[in-house]
From TrEMBL:
Organism per entry: Emticicia aquatilis
Keywords: Signal
InterPro entries: GCX_COOH, Ig_7
The Ig-like domain, residue ranges: 438-513
Signal peptide annotation: 1-23
Protein name per the record: Ig-like domain-containing protein
Transmembrane segments annotated in the record for this chain: none
Length: 586
């Protein structure tokens, strides 16, 4: 029984292996030449975009690609297998590039939307070479994976672009081998994860680690082995180095966008969100030159002045808000442009002058500033703000009080952000004594003739009198006592006591204005009086030749005399009187 089962199992395995042999990849044989496009050099026919390609060992001729070609995958089986892509040629691979041999790329290789580039051999990206490993970031794969004794050499002018959850993964045999040597340009979305051996960014080489999202960030994690930067290393997010400071060395230009772990900086570090007073981190052996800080990538518009000697950036007039500036840095024959996220110093949108408070009163001050992260209010007994005392740290506002703690103190607000801090204008707090309503409010005259002046007066125990035209609000008329007025009509004036910022209630004083003519002449029948005519006034005299009927009633009042001429008659039943008395206050 056991023997039969074993035979069936063995048969099934042999059948499966036999089936796999029929599904084998198209294989390079090189029987004619090194020409990829010659079908005679292939076993299984010239590869197409649907085919898996294998390049074996033990051959005399190895393929050289000189034209554009698309395949599904390619596998170089051993160190003796090789592939050359000529300048101008493009090899498109839809799934996997796996190399245990050697590849020399003078043209373009695209690994598209499939698996990663797995290297257990040597990949040389020549001066004209472009390599793109376009792996969907969210699928968890790496753009490029280096194993064992594999190496990538990217020559000056060569370009490597790789995306993935990590753009590059390195785990060799821990033999201190330089598994990546870069003299060209390498762009890695998702960063680098390195566990062994060495990575060297050569002089003039540029490596950029690009953030895709909060989960796939442009960072480097160095667990062991050396990372040596002699060119420009742009890390958009974190530098994590668990191999010790001596195993991550910057002898060129490095930029770290977020947290910088332990590393050795011998040359120059560009800071992100820098302070004006510490714009870069300068190593003890730095010989890089900062040519300028610019607002544009073309480095044509200056953003301000920077001095390596003082490490201070003095910005030109820049817009508010976070923006990208560009540092142009040269190093021998190398020239780098490093983007810097920069927020200008805060700018106060308003300012205060001296504040006047009445005893016991309070005032909320508010001084918002553009681009400010935090605020610090301070007071001092000195106009130069010597020995200040910290007050509120709230968002641009504080409360001052009308008491001894604030009286005659100088106040300022400090607005801060990562770039630095700025002070508001300094202003003083003046506290005034409280006041009560005025007393002895009076007028020198009342019942004024039109055009005649009177003198108003009021007494204040504290402060001084101020006159208004309304009981509340209104217009301030004068700040003196006495106050001389010449009203043209009956008017009420209001007096208050004020002491800078202290105001009392108001007390009224009315002045009646009498509008009387100098002379009146009454004739009959025009001015005959048949009813109650009241008081007829004249400042000088009244001359009458009219009649006052039996139903009439009148009083003549003049300042000098009443003259009754022929024709004047006060009939039986009429009421009439004459008064010689001043009609108004002159």
């Amino acid at each position: 029984m056991k023997k039969r089962i074993f035979s069936k199992g063995l048969f099934a395995i042999l059948l499966f292996i036999n089936q796999l042999s029929f599904a084998a990849a198209i294989t390079w044989n090189g029987s004619v030449s090194t020409d990829w496009s010659n079908a005679a050099n292939w076993t299984g026919g010239l590869p197409t975009s649907a085919d898996d390609v294998t390049i074996p060992i033990g051959l005399t001729n190895y393929p050289v690609l000189a034209s554009n070609t698309s395949i599904k995958s390619i596998f170089l089986v051993n160190t003796a297998a090789s592939l050359t892509i000529n300048s101008g040629a493009v090899l498109d691979i839809s799934t996997t590039l796996s190399c245990r041999g050697s590849i020399q790329n003078f043209g373009t290789i695209n690994v598209n939307e499939g698996s990663q580039f797995e290297l257990n051999g040597i990949f040389t990206n020549k001066t004209t070479g472009v390599f793109n490993s376009i792996i969907p970031v969210v699928n968890g794969a790496y753009g490029i994976k280096l194993f064992n004794l594999s190496r990538i050499v990217n020559e000056a002018g060569g370009v490597i672009n790789a995306t993935g959850s990590r753009g590059l993964f390195i785990q060799g045999d821990n033999t201190a081998l330089t598994m990546l040597s870069n003299s060209g340009m390498i762009n890695l979305t998702g960063g680098i994860e390195k566990y062994t051996d060495n990575l060297i960014n050569e002089t003039c080489g540029i490596i950029k680690l690009i953030t895709f999202s909060n989960f796939y960030r442009g960072e480097i994690i160095n667990q062991a082995g050396l990372v040596q930067n002699n060119g420009y290393f742009d890390i958009q997010y974190n530098l994590t180095n668990n191999a010790g400071a001596s195993n991550f060395v910057n002898d060129g230009l490095i930029k770290i966008g977020n947290t910088a772990g332990t590393f050795t900086n011998n040359k120059l570090r560009v800071r992100n969100n820098p302070a004006n007073a510490t714009f870069m981190t300068i190593g003890t052996s730095n010989n890089l030159v900062v040519d300028g800080i610019y607002t544009d990538l073309a480095t044509t518009v200056s953003a301000g002045t920077y001095s390596l000697t003082t490490n201070v950036f003095t910005p030109a007039t820049l817009p508010s808000g976070s923006q990208t500036l560009y540092a142009k840095i040269t190093y021998g024959a190398c020239s780098f442009i490093a983007p810097i996220t920069y927020v200008p110093l805060p700018v106060f949108t308003s300012q205060y002058t001296d504040r006047n408070l009445c005893t016991g009163a309070s005032e909320v001050l508010n001084l918002p500033a553009t681009d400010a992260i935090s605020y610090q209010w301070q007071s001092s007994s000195f106009a130069n703000m010597n020995a200040p005392t910290n007050l509120s740290t709230s968002a641009g506002s504080t409360t001052i009080l009308g008491n001894a703690s604030f009286a005659n103190k100088y106040i300022r607000c400090t607005a801060l952000n990562n770039t630095g801090s700025v002070f508001s204008d300094v202003f003083r707090v003046i506290v005034s004594s409280a006041v009560t309503a005025p007393t002895a409010v009076s007028s020198s005259k009342n019942n004024l003739c039109s055009g005649v002046s009177a003198s108003l007066s009021a007494t204040c125990a504290v402060g001084s009198a101020k006159w208004y035209d309304q009981a509340t609000g209104g217009t301030a008329l004068a700040t003196s006592s006495p106050f001389v007025v010449t009203p043209s009509a009956t008017t009420t004036y209001y007096a208050a006591c004020e002491n800078t910022a202290c105001f009392s209630s108001r007390v009224s004083q009315a002045i009646t204005v009498v509008n009387a003519v100098a002379t009146q002449t009454l004739v009959s029948p025009t001015n005959d009086i048949t009813a109650d005519a009241g008081v007829l006034l004249a400042g000088n005299n009244i001359t009458a030749s009219n009649k006052i009927e039996t139903t009439g009633k009148a009083t003549f009042q003049t300042g000098k005399y009443v003259e009754l001429n022929a024709g004047f008659e006060a009939k039986n039943g009429a009421v009439f009187q004459a008064i010689i008395q001043a009609v108004c206050n002159n």
